[in-house]
Structure formats: C-alpha cells, structure tokens
Write a sequence for this structure.
DNA sequence: GTCTATACGAAGATAGAC
DNA sequence: GTCTATCTTCGTATAGAC
C-alpha cells in the first residue's frame, strides 16, 4: 500500500501536536515516532509543514466525529457523556500529556490558513454535536448553544487537567456540564408533554 | 530604574505567548517588540527561556487576579461578568489574535517545571474565583465547582473565538455561563431565605 | 517512492569587550 | 548593564541519486 507511509505521518503528527504543540512538533520528531521514510514527507505533502499539519487536524476532526456518532439517537445526557468520555480517555491514556491538537494549532498557528482550518473544524463539531442534541429532543437554538458550551468547557477542562496533571478539574467540569444538560433535557421533555 | 528593561521583557513575552504560543516566541521577537536591550535577557533571566516564560505567566497571573479584585463583594453574576469581560476585552483588542498565555504554555511546554507552574496558576485562579463566589453567597463546594467551570468554559470559549475569528462562540458561552451562575445565585438565596 | 546530502536561516545560549 | 560576536544545534526545505 503506497499511502501507508502517508497515513503514518498524519497519525504521528496529530499525536505530536496534541502532546507538544505546533512549534514543538518537528519533521525529525514525526519521522522518529512513526518510522516513516524521511523522503515521504515532501512527497506526500509538497506544501510542507502547513499541509501536513492540516491533514493531521483533519484526522483529529474525523476521529472526533466518529467517536461521537454512536451517540446518535441517544438522550442528551448520553451524547454529553460520549463527548466527555472521548476527552477523558485521551487524558487518561496519555497520563495528562496530550490534549486537543486542533486547540494546539489554534493558539500557535502562524499562517492564517491554518487558523481558518481549525476554525472550520470547530464549527463542524459544533454543528455535528448540535445535530445530535436536536435529535435527542432539544430545540434547534438550545441545541446550538449547548453544543458550543459543551465543546468550550470540555476543551478548557482538558487544558486544566493537563496543567494540574490531575483528572480532578475535568471531573468537576464534567459534573457541572451533565447537570446543565440534564436540565435542558428536562425542560425539553416538559415542553413536549405540555404541547402533546 | 534598572529593572525597567526587565519589566518590558516580561510584558512583551507575555503578549507574544498569548499571540503566537510558546514555540512561536523567540528572543529575537521579544527584543524587537519591546525594544529592550538584547543583553538584558540573560542578565535578568540567567535560566534562559524557561525563566523568562515563567515570569511572563506570573505576570498574566497577577493581571488576572487584579482584574478580578474589583468584583470582590459583588453578586455572583457580577463576578462572572467581570471574569468574562477580561477575556472579551483581550479578544476584542487583539482582533482575535491573542488568547491566554498560561493556556498557550500548558499545551506546548517541554519542561515539567513550566507545566507545573502553569498548573499552580490555574489552581490559584480557581481558588481566588471561588473565594469571590463564596463571598457572594455561594456555599464553599458550589463555589469551588462553579469557579472551575467558569474558568474552563471561558478558556475554551476564547480558543473557539480565536479559531473562528468571531465573538459569536464566546458570546454563546457567556450567555450559558451567566444563566448557570444566575441559577446558583437563586438557589443560594432561596436556601438563605429558608434558614433565616 | 524513498534515499542521502545539503542549503539556508533561526533558534537558544555563551564569551568577552565596553 | 549592555553590546557584539560567535558557538552549536535544530528547523524547514530542496536537489539529485537510486
């Protein structure tokens, strides 16, 4: 398979971005981690680092959407738990050394194109998550707002957990978020009961 | 004043960290931005970049605590607005090119000491903010949780706003947070009314 | 498709003059 | 306290052989 090296490069770059940030991720690091041929980088990514990084956060995007898809059709709290679980697992498996690669790129990008790409990914997450919440019974506006809130608080919680090297702040935020979402769920059920 | 150059270096480093991240902040950048003498860096910070960055996020810490202090003694929603206002102003003044320097260091730090330092700052913010919320009438546990929630969601909202180059996600999160905090305020008032 | 070699600049850090 | 010069390492990127 000719694109095997390419895929390894993308996966490795995503992991390194999540751990060391954009400036801390060099080609040498990526090659060392993945074992991919050095010559493959510019073969598959003639645009250089920007193009490789873009592909890496695209992968992070797809991974997130995939991780969220089993929550489709489930209740609001289940969707919330699914999203939180994704981040909790990342923190646990990495012993708090990894976070969100899209966030890492956002706060360190030097090219406007990379920032815009990160922005599109976040928009995509917001839209996708809002879709799940709408399916779960929330009104469109409520779902939109809740999705953005959920993403922002989760991202922040991951950063706090990394900095403190502890799951505690993440757990605190998870509890608050679940409480908030449960309430939205109840309000939606109440409205539905009143109007049917 | 002999420490004038030192102060300029620290301020400039903090600003650059907030804009370009840790890896994107070089001594050359700092010297150019601040106009400080090149020779001053290792004179005031013999520990090199780590020591300078540490001083920079210490300044960010103090700035945040100072910005929050006028909220002391005010209601829960006022404390919340004060905290959110600090970040909103940063986003607006920088046209979405700047964020939190402590977050930037957290996601890109290569030395354990720097991460731990960032962790201590976040802990400090959580404690300080919880103190204000307790003064405002929340119970200690509720105040602790709400403070962490507020910080996490704000940090995440700043990242989303930067990525999308828009205040919209930040506004959405602000609204949700205020709604949540208002509710805690009401619950606390109710309990107080019942027990007095 | 992948390799080695290398160009070229920039990074952090150090030494010694002033 | 500040300067210039320099060391060394590392970064991205390119060229050309295989």
């Amino acid at each position: 398979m000719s694109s095997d090296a390419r895929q390894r490069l993308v996966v490795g770059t995503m992991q390194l971005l999540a751990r060391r940030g954009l400036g801390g991720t060099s080609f040498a690091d990526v090659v060392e981690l993945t074992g991919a041929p050095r010559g493959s980088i510019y073969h598959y990514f003639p645009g250089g680092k920007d193009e490789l990084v873009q592909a890496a956060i695209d992968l992070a995007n797809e991974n997130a959407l995939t991780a969220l898809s089993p929550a489709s059709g489930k209740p609001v709290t289940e969707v919330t738990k699914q999203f939180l679980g994704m981040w909790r697992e990342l923190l646990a498996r990495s012993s708090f050394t990894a976070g969100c690669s899209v966030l890492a790129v956002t706060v360190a990008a030097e090219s406007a194109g990379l920032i815009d790409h990160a922005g599109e990914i976040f928009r995509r997450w917001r839209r996708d998550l809002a879709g799940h919440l709408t399916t779960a019974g929330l009104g469109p506006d409520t779902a939109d707002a809740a999705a953005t809130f959920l993403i922002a608080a989760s991202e922040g919680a991951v950063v706090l957990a990394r900095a403190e090297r502890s799951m505690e702040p993440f757990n605190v935020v998870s509890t608050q978020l679940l409480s908030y979402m449960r309430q939205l769920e109840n309000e939606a059920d109440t409205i539905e009961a009143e109007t049917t």
